[in-house]
Amino acid sequence: MQDPRTYLPAADALHERVILITGASDGIGRAVAIAAAAHGARVILHGRNVKRLEAVYDTIVGAGNARPSILPLDLEKAGPTEYEALFNVIEKEFGRLDGLLHNAGMLGERAPIEHYDVPKWLRVMHVNVNAPFLLTQRCLPLLRQASDASVIFTSSGVVSRPRAYWGAYLASKWASDGMMHMLADELESQKIRVNSINPGKVRTNMRLQAYPAEDRNTLLPPEAIVMPYLFALGPASTGISGQTFDCQ
Ligand code: NDP
């Protein structure tokens, strides 16, 4: 397998692929959405903050790429009705889904388990684990309509190096990676591949929240780590499933 970090996609590598990116309003999701659109994808921008989603929309259209769709949804509050509505909108507009990137995430607090705030734990697990489960389950019929579908979960360094005080975030990333392996196995005989991506240290608001004293100049900007995402979303990774790709 080629190293996804050195992948150089053709300009039309994602031509006409319909790709839903959660947490596309900011940080890594925003950068991947812009890069995917620049390589021909029809992106569906998900997030909470509509103003920020509209700014991403403007950037994509301003660069002369296909008009994205905007899908505002708070993953903390979304239930079956909202997921059903989301399914109906995508089915009506596109009839299929070629890519589903579970990127939205919540850090929660850095605290020992003994003192971790219980409501906050449940919120982090809901956004980082339950939401990708619910969204994947509802989107599977749409993914089955695509000829080369790709589902991507977002991993983290806390999976390979579990350590103290990461609380629900660590537990959620282990659960997310477990879900990736399980789903890859369940869909083995189908045309849907399932992988995880570990972005590494990236200059985003979440990273700032986790390491407030860190020198931000030592970190890569989100735009510098998008290639493994394009690799996982496009034809270069066809047939590759159950893997975790590192961006750094
Ligand atoms: P950011 O904080 O920059 O962006 C997070 C995104 O998730 C935003 O678009 C935000 O939307 C969305 N989001 C958060 N909560 C919700 C919610 N309840 N409902 C809907 N959308 C929500 O984070 P990053 O770009 O840094 O992180 C992206 C992913 O990468 C995460 O899964 C994170 O765990 C992972 N990661 C990041 C690393 C890093 O160094 N940055 C390292 C390892 C993993 P809105 O703006 O609308 O609130």
What is the strand arrangement across the widest sheet?
3-2-1-4-5-6-7
Class from helix and strand fractions: alpha/beta
Tell me the major beta sheet.
Answer: 7 strands, parallel
- Look at the structure and name the CATH superfamily: NAD(P)-binding Rossmann-like Domain
Instruction: Tell me the span between the first and last alpha carbons.
Output: 17 Å
Bound molecules: NADPH dihydro-nicotinamide-adenine-dinucleotide phosphate
- What is the assembly state of the chains in this entry? single chain
Spatial shape: globular
Helix content: 40-55%
Given this structure, which CATH class is correct? Alpha Beta
Order of helices and strands: EHEHEHEHEHHEHHE
* CATH topology value: Rossmann fold
Please name the CATH architecture.
3-Layer(aba) Sandwich
The domain tally reads 1
Query: How many separate helices?
Result: 8
Sum up the structure in keywords:
248 residues; alpha/beta; Rossmann fold; seven-stranded parallel β-sheet; 13% strand; globular; binds NADPH dihydro-nicotinamide-adenine-dinucleotide phosphate
